Amino acid sequence: MGISAYTFFEQQQADRGIDLEQVKQQIKALKIETPSWGYGDSGTRFKVFQQVGVPRNPFEKLEDAAQVHRVTGACPSVALHIPWDKVEDYDQLRRHADSLGLTLGAINPNLFQEDVYIFGSLCNSNETIRRQAVNHTLECVDIARATGSSLISLWLADGTNYPGQDNIRERKHRLLSSLQEIYQALDPHMRLLIEYKFFEPAFYHTDLGDWGMAYNMALKLGNQAQVLVDTGHHAQGTNVEQIVAYLLDEQKLGGFHFNSRKYADDDLIVGSTNPYELFLIFYQILDASQATDAGVHQTAANIAYMIDQSHCIEPKIPAMIRSILNVQTQFAKALLIDFSAVKRAQERQDVLAAENAVREAFEFDVTPLLRAVREEMGVPVDPMRAYLQSDYGQRILARGKGGASW
Ligand code: RM4
Ligand code: MN
Ligand code: MN
Asked: Which residues form the signal peptide (predicted)?
């Protein structure tokens, strides 16, 4: 490792016409938000295994998140879930974040854990319950104001389990009018990110079942509403990269929830099961960031990158660090794509050369590059090792058990 591996890599990339200084700048600029809930215990519907040392409150969640930022330098903000992270004094939470070198990020309303939401929240046919759901989301807009956050990230569990259970079109109308009221409450710098998922907890129909439905709502609401792509929320075989490209071109891609899936909404460590998909997502983003249309590359520049993982069996902090390293690895590889070679091959309609120009970037070992970047950033060259060698993991054991995500 070290000098020689990097020198070799530099030469190799220079020969391909890749400007490594540019590449390094872009890796340094990539910031990924981590979720407060990823530091707590979560589980499946079968069992929540309790780990020792898990944070007991939002303040401790931030302290754990600060460890991830300390070793990676890439995670300066933390997403909150309300009411899981509800506190008396948001200014105090904000100051705590500040003292740890963090900011508070996206506010996620929770519209699925109250008993009244058994038949839905923003789509519920019962007006009183709909009002409660809208009010909760409006409270989240206020919290965003207090925490200095500019994103409201909305995911609904709404749907039905049986044909005929409720009127699908009427639910759509209720959803739009609920969202319109929420949208009106946003400050001009705020964005509403609308997340979709194809199933679960509803099993017959889901009110925001795919990107098209989220896109339609965002389009009707206005410029401050965009779609959030959670990489775990698609049916098997869905081409997520295409969704990314399409939404970017429509200037409606607002952000990501990164995680990996094998079967359903598994919320596994990002890049653990499908690193090539993550690479291809970045390929589309980088392609859009070179678009001639200013709106498209602005959209690409404003993407909110967030992790959304539930760590059931993994130690939480190292799992989060692994995720960040995996994102950086795939991003670094995508930056090595020779876009002019791709374009030339496309112009010749040379299928194999085009595919090769994309894939060959994936096949480089970017370890020396990432080590060099980390050295320049002043963070440990091996963040995982640095964390494991610190005594933080030992110290938090004193917290005992019982720190659930919710
Ligand atoms: C959902 C979705 C949301 C997250 C909840 C807890 O499946 O991914 O983003 O807030 O889970
Ligand atoms: Mn999500
Ligand atoms: Mn999910």
From this structure: none
Atom of ligand 1 nearest to the CA of 228: 9
Element (H, E) at 255: strand 253-258
Neighbours of ion ligand 2 (CB under 5 A): 230, 257, 308
> 102 is written with which tokens?
């963090």
φ, ψ (nearest 5 deg) of residue 230: -95, 120
The structure tokens 């795939």 sit at 330
The CB-based long-range contact list for 84-90 (8 Å cut-off, 24+ gap) reads 84/36, 84/37, 84/40, 84/58, 84/110, 84/405, 84/406, 85/36, 85/58, 85/61, 86/58, 87/57, 87/58, 87/59, 90/143, 90/146, 90/147
Residue 50 DSSP class: P
pTM above the 0.90 mark?
A: yes
Instruction: Give the tens place of pLDDT for each residue, 291-309.
Output: 999 999 999 999 999 999 9
CA–centroid distance, 234 to ligand 3, in Å, is 10
CB 106 within 8 A of CB 31: no
CA of 22 to the centre of ligand 1 (A): 35
What is the distance of C-alpha 51 from the center of its chain?
Answer: 24
Pick the residue whose CA is nearest to atom 5 on ligand 1.
Answer: 155
pLDDT, tens digit, 9 for 90 and up, residues 306-359: 999 999 999 999 999 999 999 999 999 999 999 999 999 999 999 999 999 999
82 vs 64: CA distance, rounded Å: 19
Residues touching ligand 1 (Cβ under 6 Å) are: 108, 155, 195, 197, 230, 257, 265, 308
Q: Give the Cβ contact number of residue 10 at 10 Å.
A: 15
Determine the Cα–Cα distance for residues 57 and 53; give it in Å rounded to an integer.
12
Query: 151-154 and 205-206: which strand pairing?
Result: unpaired
- Residue 8 backbone dihedrals phi, psi, to 5 degrees: -60, -45
In the structure encoding, which two tokens stand for residue 131, read together?
């009002």
SS3 337: coil
Residue type, 298: Q
- Which residues are 194's β-sheet partners? 154, 227
Rg (CA), the chain: 21
The preferred substitution site among 257, 310, 406 for testing ligand 1, maximizing ligand atoms within 8 Å of CB, is 257
Q: Which residues pair with 80 in a beta bridge?
A: 107
Neighbouring-strand partners of residue 79? 35
Ligand 1 atom closest to 200 (CA) = 7
